[in-house]
Amino acid sequence: MIKKGGTYVVMGLLNTDSIAYATGKLIEEQGGKVIYTAQNERLKKIFFDRGCTDLSQEEKDVLDIRYCDVTIEEEVRTLFAEIGELNGIVHSIGFANPKTCLGDNIYTDAVEDIKQGFHISCASLATVAQFAQEHMHKGGSVVTLSFASQVAFPFYNWMGVNKAALEALVRALAREYGREHVRVNAVSAGPLATKAAKSIPHFAHLARVWKKMSPLPWDVINDKKEVAHAVVFLLGEGSKKITGQTLYVDGGASIVGGELLPRERPIKSMPAKRKAAAKERLERMRELKKSHE
Ligand SMILES: NC(=O)c1ccc[n+]([C@@H]2O[C@H](COP(=O)([O-])OP(=O)(O)OC[C@H]3O[C@@H](n4cnc5c(N)ncnc54)[C@H](O)[C@@H]3O)[C@@H](O)[C@H]2O)c1
């Protein structure tokens, strides 16, 4: 659980589809104070102009949104100096030029784009942790967002490399800041419909593949809140001795070898259908046992 009245900085707000928004909302529901960051003043304005049309004026009025480009060290330093004492941070930030770093092939000529992707999606976590930990005197928790870096998916290319590096950085930072009682972890989420995801070429392919790999039903729209629950768990008291870990919140897709067999695919609806499937499995096992006698 979140510390009631504690301050949490949630970085990476673009619109109300962002994982950052789902996470911030849950922190507030549990009694935490949330300070969001958008990348810059322009994107903060876009958030209010067209990124939160589903919110009431009252909901908009209470949002505390600052801006911070994580590649500019001075902006990160100033952000945390202005906020002061805090309990946790969510680093929900990623970018790689879709034309050069994602797509059909692993292109090697756009070195500046590759560097930029690494800086934003991976190295920035170290900058954020460095300036934030000075303001977590009683200890705290830093959580970042990753995606399936243990395997190679088509089209994800340099971003997959960045995510693998991000998870390695999580371990290094956990080691570095443990003495100050600051924990650092990642949540590796399944595919979710957000602006960042839509810039991944053939994102629909990824979502389709998930249906064939995930033992639990996976919903690219609504499971953001399940991801947020895991982030909040890692921010809170219930995970006090967990650090340097990557927690998979992906419906189980990461533990499946190949594709699920058609009969293994999740039954989304109706308890009756699930009951029938359980009965069918029992019968199959009974038949098998009989054939062995
Ligand atoms: N959507 C998915 O399928 C999925 C799955 C697993 C992990 N993730 C990860 O979750 C995180 C959040 O992405 P999202 O899906 O909510 O999309 P999103 O587009 O809503 O959020 C990405 C955020 O990164 C910010 N950003 C980019 N460059 C920045 C910079 N230089 N400084 C500060 N902010 C910058 C963007 O402004 C945006 O707010 C990313 O790290 C993403 O890789 C997403």
Structure explained in plain terms:
With 293 residues, the chain is α/β, with parallel strands linked by helices. It folds into two domains: 7-259, NAD(P)-binding Rossmann-like Domain (Rossmann fold, 3-Layer(aba) Sandwich); 261-293. It has eleven helices and seven strands. It has helices spanning 19-29, 41-51, 57-61, 73-83, 98-101, 111-133, 157-177, 195-198, 203-213, 224-235, 271-292, and strands spanning 7-11, 33-38, 65-67, 88-91, 140-146, 182-189, 246-249. A seven-stranded parallel beta sheet has the order 3-2-1-4-5-6-7, sandwiched between helices. Helix 1 crosses helix 10 (224-235) and helix 4 packs parallel to helix 6 (111-133). The longest helix is centred in the middle third of the chain and has 23 residues, at 111-133. The radius of gyration is 21 Å and the shape is globular. It binds nicotinamide-adenine-dinucleotide. Nicotinamide-adenine-dinucleotide binds next to helix 1, strand 5 and helix 8. Nicotinamide-adenine-dinucleotide binds at residues 12-14, 18-20, 39, 43, 69-71, 92-95, 120, 145-147, 189, 191-192, 194-197.
